[in-house]
Amino acid sequence: METPICEFLENYAKKGATRLHMPGHKGMGQTEKYDLTEIDGADSLYEASGIIAESERNAGALFGADTFYSAEGSSLAIRAMVWLASMYAASRGEKPLLLAGRNAHKTFVSALALTGAEVEWLTGEGSYLSCRVTAADVQRYFDKAERLPTALYLTSPDYLGNMADIASVARVCHERGVLLLVDNAHGAYLRFLPEPMHPIELGAHMCCDSAHKTLPALTGCAYLHIAKDAPRELAQNAKNALALFGSTSPSYLLLASLDSVNKYLSCGYRQKLADFARRLELLKKELRAHGYAFSGSEPLKLTFNTKAYGYLGAEMAGYLMAHNFVPEFYDPDFLVLMFTPEISEEEMANLRAVLLALPKRAEIFVFPPRMSLPTRAMHPREAVLSSCESLPAEQCRGRVLAAVTVGCPPAVPIVVSGEIISESALKCFKYYGIEACNVIKE
């Protein structure tokens, strides 16, 4: 597959031209020489008609969608999806209403604040990180709703590797004329499995993928995908949506990275992925037989239920880091390891040996506090735009949360902007180490 962006940057670097344009480094350095601005021939991301448009078409052919690049991660694509759903509602003379799984990334909350879209939450089963929403849950909501939402927004895979039955959920949404939006940031590779599990393949109207999470792309590389059978105004306005929230100076290094991924995906990646996923599944089975317990079904992620093996998540993470294995995430209950086919057989063998050498201890029967859905005091937009103050968490009982400040990872808020911080929320904050909150000034 051609890589038009990479080729343009390479040819420009070879010319040795005097760069009387941005950026200020003027091409000095091994990396900087490929870092450009929108000069003649370089195209422009949000008005693409040349090499960027060609590269995006190549990506779309691989993913089976209308595909648009983001040089600002899935965060930009999430905001664009919420805006597009809002625009779609307006085109039908309606106010935008989104039904969302409660484990949404904090970017989704910021998108609500920026657009003013209304939201209702589905809690499903699981912790604040894993809101396992089923097609039956969605159907029950639709049957009882006085008004159907504009769109359903789900996170799948979630941070712990749990995957929703997108195909079944999609059927319910299609039957009711509701858009299905999926935060697929952790699942760009799902399109290329022997049995594709990508949301677009399974019936979603729009989804985001973070190429940098599971594909060999630089951090910040992401996609916005819109299904070919989605309402056409979504794809027609995608660039406007991305431009509304994105920088007018996207990194050409990131665009080139996305461009190069197209070639990578088209040259034997499917077999490489299938072989690696089988090896990882064999490792998982061996570890389970040794006493380890796991959550989630995502093929390239191992999420350890560490307490079942007798350890807190931080303890097991510390053990791995002492042996030079750096995990993606850990909390008191879980340890998350993310894999790609770029992990060598030697590294896999070493990891296996280290994990098998860790002695099993008595199971820890301490569970995270349960929390009911908080009471809403105001829309997230009003809360985010209000004057606020930062207070120790223990002083925030009964106060209204302003801006969401939860760290990334996992970037999933326990309480959402505009909601009242309850006693049960404070217990969750303490359990997960959240020491301060931004609350609206009284």
For the largest sheet, list the strands in their spatial order. Answer: 1-7-6-5-4-2-3
CATH architecture title of the largest domain? 3-Layer(aba) Sandwich
For the record, what CATH class of the largest domain applies? Alpha Beta
Provide a count of the helices: 16
Separation of the first and last Cα atoms: 59 Å
Coarse structural class: alpha/beta
Low confidence ranges:
none
Mean pLDDT: 96
Largest sheet: 7 strands, mixed
Residues in helix, % = 25-40%
Q: What's the CATH superfamily of the largest domain, by name?
A: Type I PLP-dependent aspartate aminotransferase-like (Major domain)
* Shape label: globular
- Structure summary, number of beta strands: 13
Q: Secondary-structure element sequence?
A: HHEHEHEHEHEHEHEHHHHEEHEEHHEHE
Using the CA coordinates, give the radius of gyration. 23 Å
Task: Write down the domain tally.
Answer: 3
User: Beta-strand level of the residues, as a percent range?
Assistant: 5-15%
What is the fold named in CATH at topology level of the largest domain? Answer: Aspartate Aminotransferase, domain 2
